[in-house]
Queue: 2 jobs
Job 1
Amino acid sequence: MSAIKVINETCTGCGLCQKVCPYDAITLKDKLAVIDLHKCTLCGACVEKCPVDAIEITVQRRVQDGLEEYEGVWIFAEQRSGEIQPVVYELLGAGQRLAKARSTRLSAVLIGSGVEKLCDVLFQRGADVVYLADHSGLDNYHDESYSRILTRLVEQYKPEVVLCGATSLGRSLIPRTATELKTGLTADCTGLEIDPESGHLLQTRPAFGGNIMATIRCENFRPQMATVRHKVMVEAEPVPGRQGEIVRFEVKEEDLQTRATVIEVVRALEETVNITEADVIVSGGRGLKTPENFQLLVDLAKVLEGAVGASRAAVDAGWIDYAHQVGQTGKTVKPKVYIAVGISGAIQHLVGMSSSDTIIAINRDPDAPIFKVADYGLVGDLFEIVPLLIEKFKRK
Amino acid sequence: MNIVVCIKQVPDTTDVRIDPKTNTLIREGVASILNPFDAYALEEAVQIKERLGGTVTALSMGPPQAEAVLREAISLGADQGILISDKEFAGADTLATSYTLSRAIAKVGEVDLILTGKQAIDGDTAQVGPGIAVHLDLPQIIFVRKIREIDAGKVVAERMTEEGYEVVESSLPLLLSVVKDINVPRLPSLRGKMLAKKVEIPVWTAADLETDPDRIGLKGSPTWVDKIFTPPAKSGGDIFTGEPQEVVEAFYKKAEENQLFS
């Protein structure tokens, strides 16, 4: 028996399901909806839309034993070179909300070498407990050792929710941990709420390059795990003097074993390059015409204390390094202000920046698609406008 | 060196449009393409094979029509393509998908290196690669921008981070996921195109892979989509036109009013 079926007696052939299906899996044949089971992902969009309840999903889902033993909200406190990463404070902010909704405690997992001193700041930012694995062998991040320790901690203390930053470290670590724990993981959540009725975590994330949003559940397995990008959630405010409890994880030699070893860490980027962290990004595209003209953007970025981004066209032309590329095959950014200069706004670019708080577009062509997503559109020659902007904001 | 490349057929998101009236996705006429990141993984595999010898096997899990990307992989230099397809796999999340792919890789046999693109552009999770590594108990290097050294004994690769890169050394076998920076994919050769047309693409089903029925498809998926909705469309912004001086003045005034840069 298939997991989804159309009740032919009820179906009126209205075609609403066909329109709403994000996977193009429904066709109309003889005024009846027909579902292509190879394309269908059982997302349920059609079930919700059908005005006559003619589509049924019957699912036999497995349920993990001992679900009710899992309690508490955890966040992974990523540190690099002894510095807590800013996304951690945002995870603590989100974690506080979730822990409150579940009337439970918020804990942080801190792994590293000589990092015990960081516990205080985690307590101040809302952690009730810090699970600490502090060992000289944990100095650099390694997938295998970090994931092994996090997995052991989860198995021992059984939290119901685990959140992690969607950083280059987090996205390497946390899928390993979730797989070892055989539980679900939802990437890049922009919304995390507790369902008031069931108490389960509702995880909302963009799909299809941000064209649609999906809410994901992981009801029958624990922990419910999710990653969150930097600058998406609101930071937890520090409360000076706030205290908490440290629970130490005794690191054994076998925990440290790893086949892939970091032999060098290279910090190659200047401030103007770190586009995933910047509050202001000035991005350039084909309209800049030459690599030399990127200096104009560097100047504007400096005045606005921002970083320089680029469209794929500019990177492919060799005008600027790939590390600057924003968009589908580059980085996804969410700064407070994104300034697109001489970028027409191909969809591949838009998916990488459209969730920025404010978008400013500068382009000669008033019909450029970039203006459709822009909050402020400056129509005109960038070579005239950008120098004027630099002047204006420099004087400020 | 025996290399497996995991590839995915995805809708070309360039083609995806929102119907302004119904505010839903228009999928009609949307082309299916090889996931762009997987093209870099494939190219890297073919380059390694050209240097060190061995075979490149492309694997794809998907509906019968996903066969097309396997033919494309062969035209680009893969030696064989295998489609992993079964209605039982429907509804698979990243855990069930990575499990299923790991079973297929085990069936391929002695594998030294598994390559994937950093993520697929339809889901953007980047979770399946690390999942495969864990299911097969292998190390991984994720977001690789350059392979510095590779031989039968070890790999040294640069992995992209926010602040630069890390140099990671690992034993083989292992899984690598690659970013765009790693290479420039070649165009299909005429010979490759001819080969791709004729070649038979075997289909492996759940039974062929001896998968645990509790770990595939919907049943093996802890997560599921509860609801899909379209984000509210952005309302029109302020457009400034005229002489550059006027445009900048008008914008500057607005920027100050709304404290854009404070």
Job 2
Amino acid sequence: MIKKERHVLVVFPHPDDEAFGVSGTIASYREMGVPVTYACLTLGEMGRNLGNPPFANRETLPQIRKEELQKACEAMGLEDLRMMGFRDKTIEFEDDEKMVQLITDLIDETNPSLVITFYPGLAVHPDHDATARAVVRAVRRIPETERPALYTLAFANNTVEVLGQPDIIHDVSAMADKKLATLKAHASQTVWMMRETEKKLAAQDPETLKWLNNERFYSYQWSNDFE
Amino acid sequence: MKKVRPDHLQELITSFANKDVYIHLETTNGSYATHLNEGFFNAGAFIRNIVVKYELGKVAGDSPHRIGLKLPSGWIYAQGITHYKLDEHGRLLMAGLDSDGKLAVALEISETPFTY
């Protein structure tokens, strides 16, 4: 059961961050008529994957990933995409307060009832963790009674040790086609993975089906704040 | 990008010598290397839009090649270069792609700045 929201704000640093674990959720909200804003901080300029065989190079990759991101948003039915213009790998080196302000401005403008991002410190990529820190700090500044809900994604190897099991589970099985279309839209990054995934889906691999049909989040616990 | 033809790449590198040029130099294992293989020591570096003037540039070794640029008081060096391209903006893009096609090293030379 996916709870209806007033407005959902999704914040990730890289095109495709939304595809793996949130695209079914975003597509569900859009079908429910819930407005979704996706702020994507970079264009994944420093990605190692250039297609296989390579169809991109270091300098053409940003434009290609921008187009892939736009296609992915179309696949999810998402209309409010914000490309924030930062460079891949550099988020943690930006001024921390500037990043908090950027998120605060997005929250003030969109007035979300739910914000979705990574969990700080358990999101593996330094850009993921830096983005998560900025979002948590921005939401923390909002008086408790007015705060939007905050759903976070964590996938570091020690996640279950630290946070236990996710408490929010969305059944997105009805969105499977849109989720796969979103992943495929990010062709430069996912072509390797999708070949494997489609084989596993054809074989009804239980783990892959579970991943496709369920999206799992940790609702952020202010009583167990990361800092 | 095409597989390096050393003679052609050498000509291109020489054509940028003794001019002010912008450099992008990068090595990477990807940000997930330690996540996928715990214990892997992930190291990498990049610089972008640094202006230099080199007096001599060479392609060395069989593929993957090594590239060295001799500066008046220093060096730029990249190992593992497999592919190259002179793009439509006249920029010389060189990269080392591993067996999966993933970028491991990049060295790029341009007379105009690279985007941000």
